[in-house]
Amino acid sequence: MSQLPTTFAALGNATRLAIVERLLAEGELSAGALQADSVTPPAMSRHFKVLREAGIVVQRVDAQRRLYSVKPEAVQAIGEWVLNFREFWAGSLDRLDAALKDAK
Amino acid sequence: MSQLPTTFAALGNATRLAIVERLLAEGELSAGALQADSVTPPAMSRHFKVLREAGIVVQRVDAQRRLYSVKPEAVQAIGEWVLNFREFWAGSLDRLDAALKDAK
DNA sequence: TTGTTAATTAACGTAAGTGATAATTAAGTA
DNA sequence: TACTTAATTATCACTTACGTTAATTAACAA
Fold it and tell me: Residue A104: its pLDDT value, please?
């Protein structure tokens, strides 16, 4: 069974999407560096857990710090889902198919 | 403000993702044709509402029937979100950028 | 050892999501 | 006018999601 619904659900929260976008833009960051002003650390911690369990991020331990980064496969899976329906885009996206394969 | 979290949240449910996938693969379908065995019609109806309010599908009325179809922009927005981080894919997806623009 | 920093887990309250059955609306059809 | 079909809205029950404060774990520093 596909875990795409789980992936989408995890990204279906503004705080978590912002976390993922920062990690994609800036690379590996600690929980503290990702801390949002609008939410408390415990709440952030549970958002990280949701992202981990959805297979979107991985955690690396460095002393007291927890360093997070995005798993490329997760974002790639979304890209491929969009591509599966490329006929919908007037068949103009076939080039992406090869591009995604190259990235593997 | 972006409505991407709303889009992802709407697709973060297996029943709704299945609805969207059928509409993408088969085109416009009625609520009845989309009816899943595992859920009751009222539940399906509310799933349609979530998808409508997220801007993912549009409803067209034909007598007693409600015909649904996917809004291309919604899927396109997801594709563009993935592309925004194409550096993450080793910069190999630049061709998709043009492809998505062509589809507009 | 004691204190500080970083992050998580525990416990709790409240809001939102999801499902069911029953009732309602609206449009055909006999 | 009934009757049937298609779908939605109303109501209710239950679960999950999300946020808070307090407590705990783990690692480093004085």
Answer: 46
Domain boundaries, chain A: 1-70, 72-104
8 Å CB contact of A96 and B92: no
> Residue at minimal CA–C1' distance from C26?
B64
Query: Per-residue pLDDT tens for B9-63?
Result: 999 999 999 999 999 999 999 999 999 999 999 999 999 999 999 999 999 999 9
b (16+ CB within 10 A) / e for A70-86:
bbeebbbbbbbbbbebb
Cα angle value B81/B82/B84 (rounded, 5°): 65
Cβ of A49 less than 7 A from strand D: no
CATH number of A1-70: 1.10.10.10
